[in-house]
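One thing: mind reviewing this one?
=====
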Amino acid sequence: MSLAEKLGKMGVPGFRSGRRWKMAIATAAYLFIGFLILAFFVGLSTQMLQEPASAAMQPEQNKQLTQPPGPEYESYEPTPLPEKYISIEHSYKTQKKIQGHTAPAGKTFLIIDFNIENHGYPVFRINPLYWSVYVNTFENPNAYILVSYRIESIYLEDELPVAELLNGGSIKGSEAFLVPEDWDNYEIQYNDLRNERYNIIWK
């Protein structure tokens, strides 16, 4: 007795009639259903095996996502200072009066505070005659005019003195210049009358 006939006697649907073509169809149907069940369990077990691997890879993926996009940039290195240089730090304020002296109409006193350091030169000469100041106005922002050193500086309590600043030395003081009242910006130049050349870093 064949397996199909035994299943028919057991009352399994599709095999009870005993007809061969119905038995063939039933056999194919049960095989297909069995294949689907087998595929389901195989897929489920595969997914369970892959999940731990994915979890193990997740930190590395997060690490990659936190890296900035684009090319890798080298760390910034500041430009090294020259072997010898003069550091001149300056700031300003304006006043209409200096020790009781009032600026003329349309003028004001531009007071520049200096902090000068000598790094490497045997001597750096400081003299009021060595400073040139140029200012522009709101009406002519591109036209700078030369402002000469003014004698009013002698009335400043912290006037920058005439001095020879030696290597490693520093000095502070102020100079006063008479400028148009509507001045907008200023520039400073240092000109040694002995034509000495210095590497000056303005701050």
The domain at 85-202 is CATH 2.60.40 (Immunoglobulin-like). Residues 20-66 form the longest helix (47 residues). Residues 59-67 have pLDDT under 50 and may be disordered. The radius of gyration is 46 Å.
